[in-house]
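Changelog-adjacent note: as of this version, every example in the card shows the full chain rather than a window. The one below runs 158 residues end to end.
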Amino acid sequence: MLAESCLLINTYFCHNLLSFVFELQQLQQLQQREQSSTIAVAEFCVKDKIEHLPLHQILLSPFNAYHASKTGECARILYNAKAKGVIEVDARILIQNDVKLLVQAECESADFYLTSDSRSKRMYDVLKEEGKLSFDFTDIHTPYSAKFGILDFQNIPT
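Full-length structure tokens:
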């Protein structure tokens, strides 16, 4: 396996991609590769056209049978957590795309999951506690410097 990091970008981030150019440039400096799921692309296309996505800059990862199998396992954990009152999740149809995207990020060995959907953090926390997820959850509402720190350019050793 290549010694590089992987970042899975969810739908909400795709919608706001152009407004977050600075964060992407910073991540590229860390030699990240941006990856998005075909699920996120499908959600994007509900309100916009695929031609408006910078597909030449994003590696698309198709949701496959392995992802589906692992998603079923994780959805079961989340349904049990909801039944026990551990978490509250919106009443949505069957398995939420959030769960699919989180599991796909794990299956693709993502190091970071970048999203503007703060609500999906509840599901992430339950699955992380159960040992199903190993990547870092990053909410774009958190300033870059608060998440990754600030480089001190004034005190660089010479």
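Structural remarks: The chain has a mean pLDDT of 79.
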